Amino acid sequence: MPDSDLDEDMRRPVRGRLRLSARGIALRAALLACGVFTLAAVVSGSWGWWLLAAGVAAVGLPVLLFRDRRPLSERIASPRERRDDAFASPAAVLAALPDPVVIVDRRGLVVDANRAAKAMLPGLRLAHPFSFALRAPEVLDGIEAVLRKGEALTAEYLERVPVERVFEVHITALGDVQAEGGHYAGAALFFRDLTAARRLEHMRVDFVANASHELRTPLASLMGFIETLQGPARNDQAARERFLVIMREQARRMSRLIDDLLSLSRIELSAHVQPQTPVDLVAVVRHMIDTLAPLARERGVDINLKAPPLPVTVRGERDELLRVFENLIENAVKYGQSGGRVDVGIERSDGAAGEVTVCVRDYGPGIAPEHLPRLTERFYRVDVAASREKGGTGLGLAIVKHIVNRHRGRLTIDSQPGEGASFCVSLPVIPPADGA
């Protein structure tokens, strides 16, 4: 027999004995004591008024002292029963829900909230108005409507800082209608994060639109060369070799374009999730400079690094940070090669903000001021012909911007025509105690 069944069988007689209340047990004990003393007094022949007074006191005291008439079996729960009650309590169920849940009363004050809700809304406080924690008119108006009418409704709101997120909030009335004011006793708010689903939807739409637009030109070029090789240049060996070289470059351009579009879509899909892995930024920049050194030598450009001797740790994805500095340093080498030099500086701020800034500066022709605000847009190029000639897809700086935003950093661009350009990335630093 299992131990739990054995324990249950052993408790059954105890529960049978505990069907009486404490008052009933005390009265029976008092009556039994009175009977014993009365019998002893009768046998000895020494009973009198004191025996009557003792009997009244013995019966009256339990009546006065024990007023609870509930059976003891209802008041004394077994350890297992107490665990079961705690396990099934509303507070335990609320805490176990993975999605944020908030309960408010008819005045809009927060009555309870689970851990997910407190993590999503840091300003949430019990017994404080819910509007202090969330400034979303569509949700607050929905709460008021539910408390007034009792009909469940769904609201949607957009959170823009620190990153853009979309939530669907299902609001349900709780309790009966109050006599005063006609409002329901309270409401429960269930939050559902739609950010990933919306980003996936936008990713599909953007990918189809961008791919169809940017791939049209190289595909048309390939089709033209193929038709030429099948027709007039069928037997022209020199033309065939020249066309095949161009076709190979167009195919590589399409491959780079698709790779960049997929990378950008993946980054946008997880833009609301901040990376948490400690990464040494100095090591990342050094690694990328070593990787791009052959390209710089080929184009006659020297890359100079100025970095602190000790590691500088940030929270991030190493591969994404490598992609950031690959794009920035490669662009500086390609588009600023006329300056013959690229400077990369890593500087940690001494202020309370705790930031590290990596600046990549070239000494090339520079960028006109009217182009600076649009450099991080998809497919925006200052010089379309020069960009395509150097193998650019127009997505490099857009990828840099989205990766930096995901890492809760900033990208700043400074340039003057004829004086080169400077691209700086600022990221929050992990304090030494946390990064150890």
TrEMBL record:
PANTHER family, A to Z: PHOSPHATE REGULON SENSOR PROTEIN PHOR
A molecular-function term among this protein's GO annotations: ATP binding
Domain Histidine kinase span(s) in chain numbering: 210-431
Chain ranges passing through the membrane: 20-41, 47-66
Protein name stated in the entry: histidine kinase
Source organism of the structure: Chelatococcus albus
PROSITE patterns given in the database record: HIS_KIN
SMART domains: HATPase_c, HisKA
InterPro entries according to UniProt: BphY/WalK/GraS-like (IPR050351), HATPase_C_sf (IPR036890), HATPase_dom (IPR003594), His_kinase_dom (IPR005467), HisK_dim/P_dom (IPR003661), HisK_dim/P_sf (IPR036097), PAS-like_dom_sf (IPR035965), PAS_4 (IPR013656)
